[in-house]
Amino acid sequence: MSRTNAISIFEDENTQAKLNEMQAGIVENLQKSGNSFKFKSQNANLDEKAGSYVFKRFVNSEEKDYGTARTAGKGDKIQAPEIPVNLDKDKEIVEEVTKKDAERFGLDASVINLLNKRKTNHQSTLKRNIEKDFWTEAYLGALCGDELKMKGKIVAGISSGANAETIDSQLESAIIPLEKTENKFVNGVDRDFIGGVLDPNVYSKLKTRLNTLHNINFSVEDKELTGINGVVMFSENYLPKKVDYIIMAKESVAQPVIIDEYDCEKIPLSNDFAVELFSSRGTKTLAGDLIVVGITIDATHTKVVTVDALPTTAANVATDTIYIATKAVKIGDVDYSAGDMFTATKDGSTITWTQYNV
C-alpha cells in the first residue's frame, strides 16, 4: 500500500488538524493512564524523533581528601556508560472507511466519524501492548541482568499461609532491600523514587488490608496507594504471568515511544480509504539491580530459584520450588525462553517438568 499525503485527499483543510488533535489526545491519555509512563526513564533527548536513543547511567562520585586533584593535576572523570535503546518494534493500526460510508457522509465526515468511535479502542490497544512490553522487560532485566550485567532480585511473592505476615509487611520486606542497595551506581534509593505495580488480585488484598487500618493516608477511591510507608503502588493488568508484583526504582527501564499522526490514504484499485496509526517503540532495562520481582506462589510451591539450566538429577530437584530459567532451555522437543518458570514432580529418579507460567 503506497503512502499518500493525507491532506491531499481531504475535502476540508481542517480535517487533518482534527486527526492530529485526536492523536495528541491518545498520547496524553496514555501518559496519564499507563503505569509504565510513571516509571520509565526520561534520561535521553526524547523530544526529537530518531531510530534509537542513548541513555546513560552515571557511576557514583568518589570523595577524596582535600588537595588530591591539585596534586594529581586533574579531577576524576565522570563515568556514565552509554546504553543505546533501538526503536525495534514497529506497529500499525489500519482500518478501512468503506466506499458506501464515504459516499453517504463525505470522506472527511467518514474519517472523523470512524475515529471518534475507534480512538478509545486504539488507545487501549496501544496501552496494552506498551505496558506488556515494559513490564516484561522489567521482569527479564531483573532476572537476566541489564546491559551492564546488573541483576535484580527474584523472590517468592505474596503468601497467604496461616502463619504468613500481613500483605503490607510482605511488600515492605521487598522494598527495604531495594532501598538499601549499594553498588558503584547507587548508594541507597530514596523511597520517593521507588514505586510498585501489583497484580489486580494482590492490589485488592492490599487495599482491603489497608482499609482496615486507622489514620491511613489514602481514601477508598484512590487508585494510587501511598500507604506502604511512602512507596506508591498501582494496580497493573499487564504483568507477566505468575508475577505478583514488580517493585523498582523509577527510571530503571527505558521505553521511548513514537506515535505518528493519524493518516488517511486511498486503497489502490478501489474507492475505499484506510485510516492509519503507526507507532514505534523500543524497551530496555537500564538498572536491573533496582528491580524486585515477586513470583506467584501456591500451597505446593512456596520457594523460588533462578537457574541457567534445569537440574537433571532427581536428588537436586525440590518439588516445592519454582525454577525460573535465566536462559533458553529445552525439555524434550520443546524450546522455552528465558523467564519461563517450571515445577517438578519426581518418581524415583525420573523428573517430570511442567511449565508454571501458563
Brief summary of the model shown:
With 358 residues, this protein is an alpha+beta fold. 28% of the residues lie in helices and 27% in strands.
Describe this structure as you would to a colleague.
This protein has 358 residues and is an alpha+beta fold. 28% of the residues lie in helices and 27% in strands. The chain has seven helices and 20 strands. It has helices at 14-33, 36-39, 68-72, 99-105, 107-144, 167-179, 200-211, and strands at 52-56, 82-86, 89-97, 153-156, 194-198, 225-228, 231-235, 243-249, 253-254, 257-259, 263-266, 273-281, 284-285, 291-295, 303-307, 321-325, 329-331, 334-336, 341-347, 350-355. It has a six-stranded mixed β-sheet, with helices on both faces. Strands 3, 10, 11 and 12 form a four-stranded antiparallel β-sheet that branches. A four-stranded mixed β-sheet has the order 15-16-19-20, with no helix packed on it. A hairpin with a 2-residue loop joins strand 19 (341-347) and strand 20. The radius of gyration is 25 Å and the shape is globular. Residues 1-12 have low confidence and may be disordered.
